[in-house]
Every structure is written in structure tokens, then in C-alpha cells.
Amino acid sequence: FTRVIKLRDGSLQKSDNDSAEPVNIPMKNHFPTREDQFLALQNTSEFDVLVIGGGATGCGCALDAVTRGLKTALVERDDFSSGTSSRSTKLIHGGVRYLQKAIMRLDFEQYRMVKEALHERANLLEIAPHLSGPLPIMLPVYKWWQLPYYWVGIKLYDLVAGSQCLKSSYVLSKSRALELFPMLQKDRLVGAIVYYDGQHNDARMNLAIALTAARYGAATANYTEVVHLLKKTDPKSGKERVCGARCRDVLTGQEFDVKAKCVINATGPFTDSVRKMDDQEVSNICQPSAGVHIVMPGYYSPDNMGLLDPATSDGRVIFFLPWEKMTIAGTTDTPTEVTPHPIPTEEDINFILTEVRNYLSCDVEVRRGDVLAAWSGIRPLVTDPSSKDTQSISRNHIVAVSDSGLVTIAGGKWTTYRSMAQDTIDAAIQAHNLKAGPCKTVGLLLQGAKDWSPTLYIRLVQDYGLESEVAQHLASTYGDKAFEVAKIAQVTGKRWPIVGKRLVSEFPYIEAEITYGVKEYACTAVDMISRRTRLAFLNVQAADEALPRIIDIMGKELHWSEQKKKEELESAKKFLYYEMGYKAKSEQLTDSSEITLIPSDIDRYKKRFHMFDKEKKGFITILDVQSVLESISIQIDENTLHEILNEVDLNKNGQVELNEFLQLMSAIQKGYVSGSRLAVLMKTAEENLRERVVIPVDRSGGGL
């Protein structure tokens, strides 16, 4: 059976996915509320399947099970996609480097994994075209002998994909490569090879799988922790069998039992902790590896062309990809301890920046201050516990059934979540004699895909009066459900746009998405800034600025007290500070930062500072800045000015001292800090006082 599918870029692709049987279960028009889901969990006498884990694989298992007609429940102790599934490279790919290893080592297992992943890549682009699309990736070549070597490898990648190849790879001359990727290092460049893989919005894709499962009838609940597994003695064998789990609502503390014929452990890096709930003596099968990514401004890469560095200084692979109008660079591969809150280290951030510098033109200054966000994700690699080298480990998955009947799915990768879920449910049916039909998830459209088209955003602009950028964002995030968000968007009171108040000026996220996000089971401010919107992953400072308004809207929807709002703000700021790279960013400028300016620069910056500190106090306050701005007819509200000074007020005494200002300018010169509003403001004021020309000042995306 062959079907033709339309990709996000409007092109057509043939799909040879096996035609799955139609799903006979009715799909609800709307997903149930979280309260309804909790009632279903508590009041159902026994489920066929209980899935532990709300990442891509867990939600995939729930969707697979419920569409086969099995009574299905899923619990997740945090939010859907709160772990590894939201912290990926955002690629849907077969794995070029795995194919290289398969060929070099004649490893059929690696080859089979690549073949399966390429099949799943085609399916994922088909079932969620609004959230995914093909992305050309350039592999620059700097030695003549590498050109045929890489060309053969990439052509084999196309060949393995067969009719599911997104677009055929091709070779570029040096001049054409620089035309398409002008910021590329041109010295010694021989040419380049371009191949295609898929890209997606990972957290939103994960959520779409969860919401689709909920609409088919699965009882799915986030912030529901498994306290321990329930067991009963099998009368036939006399052995203890897992028969459910004792669960706790993390938000209220309420505990209850969920009974099930089969329990599935799909907890990613936490696989072994659930296995030890079943059997304390069991040996570990998961060896976690940390992968750090950084986000930089969009001008670091072309709008629609990624870059692959196939051999970094330590043998790892680095991707440099456009995503959500920003640039993602990563990843690292380091053995780590399992933690629910992985933190990106300054060492990893600088490693990625160093590798990026090697591939970009010397005309492009790669600055530490341009890192807008950074995160670490833990890959749940399956390995022998004695193995030390995580880079040589295949990301293939295993399905294991314990003596007590606990089904564990471990390993694998984002792209193959659906086939992993199919293998898991097949194993569960066989191990527990469940009555169910064949898998039906091949070609099964996810939430938002049914009536989506590449031109859907135009209707949003025409029917609701949304900005074009906002409409495109809503269409690519919610698919055909974008109209539900547009319907609740507030009137702006402006001539244009008519509706849709932005949360922050430089991103297309609007306030209505916060209201809608609560319907999508968002329970905390962190859920909203990191997984319903992706602000935290794109710019931690912008996310921080949006938090008060986000919490106000959520507070109204969820009836939060003032104390609860305060707790949410503190929790979200802590998340941004530690897990999204704000700490590493803020440490680039501290009260102990060294001043390395030459004497002439120190004199120049002192003169600029004293234009504001007219009384020679040695520090400037909001009143000093306001006074200068008023003299040149620039008006900035007091709250904004307070924020601007607070960014540089290192000892937090409500004023910026001369030494702090010199530390700031020194950090900017070294590239450690960029986008300082105070530095831009003072430079602008100095020029205005000379020329009396008014220049507006916004938060800059770059440095000076």
C-alpha cells in the first residue's frame, strides 16, 4: 500500500508504510480534564495496561494500547515530556553515524536500527506534519579525499531509506556552499554535501501523542507518582505477580491504587529505579549519558539549512541547526548520574562553542554571551553495567519481562518511539494473555494533524486578525487546533493585530496559549515556559520576563492563592537558573569579574559613566538614568529601568557602581556578555547628547 503525503514545506512524498487497520474506537472531540482523568484512574476496577512514564515512549505505549482496544492508563510523576523527550537535538533521523559504524564494523544490528529509524522518520513526518518537516543538513568538506568518502556514505543513507527518502542528497561546489551558508569557514573548504533528515518540536510532539491517547480514551495523568508496585500471588504458579501501582497525586498528596493486568515501565533514565521496585536484587541495564545543547541567535545559521560536524576534536558529532528561528548547537556525550534535574556545565557549553568556532568564518565572532539558553538531557542508553564508553553504545531498544510480569522498555531513540511502543505492547499482550488486535499506529494522525495544511495560517490571519508570524507559529504548534487558541485570544485594542497579545515582544507566543495550555494539562509555570511554549529553551531571559504575566493568567485559571503564585515564580526562576543555563550565563559577569580593559578604553568608559553620574558619587541610580534620558527625549518606564540596572547591579544594592560598569564593558569586549540593555542605553545616550538624534532602545539580541 502506497500513500502520498504532504510535508510541511509543501512537497509531496510517497509513503510505503504498511497500512494499519482502521481504529474502531471513537475519538472524543475534546480531551478530558485532568480531574476527569483522575476519577477514571481511581474508579476503574482494573485496567488492561498501566504505563509508568509520560515521555515519548510511554505516551507511545499508551496510544498503541488504547487504539488496540485495551483499557489503558498512564501516570507520569512530573509533566509529559519533562525529561529527555523535551531536551533532544530536535531531529527525526535515522542516524548517519550509526550507518557509518554499521558499514565500517559490518554490524547488521546497527544497520537494522538505521533502517527502522528511517521508516519511522517517514511515519512521524506523515502523522504530525504541523510539528515536523524535512531539513537539509550540510556536511562541509575540507579535504579532497573526503568528498567521495562522505558522498558514498550519504548516498547509502538515501539508499537505505529507499522510497521513504525525503529528498535526494547532492554535492555543492565551494562557491555554492558559501552562498547557501555564508557564515561557513571558507579557508581550505573544498565543497559540501547536503542530505535531508527530519526536524520537529519535540515537547509538543510528545504532548500531541499524550493528548491523542487521551482522546481515544486512555486515562493519562501527569504529576502522578508511583509510590510502589502492587503485587498479588498467582493461584496457579504460587508466584507473586505485579498487578498495579500505588500512586500519589504530587500536587495534592492524595494516594490511591491503580489496578492493572499489565504494568509497563517506560521511564527512560529512571528505568532501573522502577525495576528495583519490582526486584531489589536486579542488576542495572541503563547507563545514562548526558547530552548538552546550547541555543544561539538565529543569525548564526541560515533559516533553512543545518550543519553537521562529523568529527569534532574528541571524535563526537556536533549538529548546528536552525530551530524556531534560533540556532541549536550540540551535543556532548558524557557518562552521568541519573537526576530529574540535569544541569548544563560551563565546560560543555565552551566545548560546543569551540567546535562551532572551527566551522564558522573568522568574520563571525562566536561569543559566550550569545548563548541564550542551554540544557542537558539524559540519554537512557542500554548497556552492560561494566561498559565505560557510552559513545560506542547503540541506541537500540530492549523489551524485557520480569518473573513477576513487569514489562520494561529501555533504550531506543526519539525517532523510533512508535516501533518501540509496538514491540512493548506486543510483548505485554503475549506475556499477560491480553485480548487485543494488531498495532494500529502506523499512519495514525496525531492531535492537530487531521485538517492541517501548509496554508492554514492564512485563514488565521484573515479570520481573526492575527499577526502573520503569530498565525504561522500557532498553525505549526497546534495544527488544526490553532483555531481554538485564536478564538480565546484577547483583542489588542490596536488597528493591527486585532487579536493576540504577545507574552514578550520578540517571540510569537501569545497570552491565549497560556489559557489553552491549562486545558492541555499544564499544572505549573515551568510546564508553560518549557513545554507548552518553548520560551525557556529559546531565551532564558525572555522566559524570565514573561513569568509574572504567565503566572497571573495561570493563577486565574487554576485559582491560585497569592502564596501559590509566589511559590510558582520561585520554582520557575530556579528551573531557569539551574536547568536552562541562566546560572552559567549570569556567572559571566560577577562582582569578582576581572577588568581587562586597556587604559584608553577605561578613560572612554569612565567619561560615559560620568555623563550619568554628574555628581561624581561613584554610582548611578534610576533617577540618574531618567534625568539623562529626559534631556534627550527618550522615555522608558520605571519598572523597565529597574530591570535594566538590576542586570548589572552585581552586589544588588540598588545602584550601579563605576567598577561594576567597567566589569560589564570588559565582559562585553571579551564576548562573555552580549545584549546588555544598560550598555546599549548608555552608548545611545552618549551619541544622542553629541548629535541630538533619538534612537529607540530595546533588549538587544547581540552585543556591542
Automatic annotation (TrEMBL):
<keyword id="KW-0106">Calcium</keyword>
<dbReference type="InterPro" id="IPR031656">
    <property type="entry name" value="DAO_C"/>
</dbReference>
<protein>
    <recommendedName>
        <fullName>Glycerol-3-phosphate dehydrogenase</fullName>
        <ecNumber>1.1.5.3</ecNumber>
    </recommendedName>
</protein>
<keyword id="KW-0809">Transit peptide</keyword>
<dbReference type="GO" id="GO:0004368">
    <property type="term" value="F:glycerol-3-phosphate dehydrogenase (quinone) activity"/>
</dbReference>
<keyword id="KW-0496">Mitochondrion</keyword>
<comment type="similarity">
    <text>Belongs to the FAD-dependent glycerol-3-phosphate dehydrogenase family.</text>
</comment>
<keyword id="KW-0677">Repeat</keyword>
<feature type="domain" description="EF-hand">
    <location>
        <begin position="636"/>
        <end position="671"/>
    </location>
</feature>
<dbReference type="GO" id="GO:0006072">
    <property type="term" value="P:glycerol-3-phosphate metabolic process"/>
</dbReference>
<dbReference type="InterPro" id="IPR038299">
    <property type="entry name" value="DAO_C_sf"/>
</dbReference>
<dbReference type="InterPro" id="IPR011992">
    <property type="entry name" value="EF-hand-dom_pair"/>
</dbReference>
<comment type="pathway">
    <text>Polyol metabolism; glycerol degradation.</text>
</comment>
<dbReference type="Pfam" id="PF16901">
    <property type="entry name" value="DAO_C"/>
</dbReference>
<keyword id="KW-0285">Flavoprotein</keyword>
<dbReference type="InterPro" id="IPR002048">
    <property type="entry name" value="EF_hand_dom"/>
</dbReference>
<dbReference type="InterPro" id="IPR036188">
    <property type="entry name" value="FAD/NAD-bd_sf"/>
</dbReference>
<feature type="domain" description="EF-hand">
    <location>
        <begin position="600"/>
        <end position="635"/>
    </location>
</feature>
<dbReference type="InterPro" id="IPR000447">
    <property type="entry name" value="G3P_DH_FAD-dep"/>
</dbReference>
<keyword id="KW-0274">FAD</keyword>
<dbReference type="Pfam" id="PF13499">
    <property type="entry name" value="EF-hand_7"/>
</dbReference>
<dbReference type="GO" id="GO:0005509">
    <property type="term" value="F:calcium ion binding"/>
</dbReference>
<dbReference type="InterPro" id="IPR006076">
    <property type="entry name" value="FAD-dep_OxRdtase"/>
</dbReference>
<keyword id="KW-0479">Metal-binding</keyword>
<keyword id="KW-0560">Oxidoreductase</keyword>
<dbReference type="GO" id="GO:0005739">
    <property type="term" value="C:mitochondrion"/>
</dbReference>
<comment type="function">
    <text>Calcium-responsive mitochondrial glycerol-3-phosphate dehydrogenase which seems to be a key component of the pancreatic beta-cell glucose-sensing device.</text>
</comment>
<dbReference type="InterPro" id="IPR018247">
    <property type="entry name" value="EF_Hand_1_Ca_BS"/>
</dbReference>
<dbReference type="Pfam" id="PF01266">
    <property type="entry name" value="DAO"/>
</dbReference>
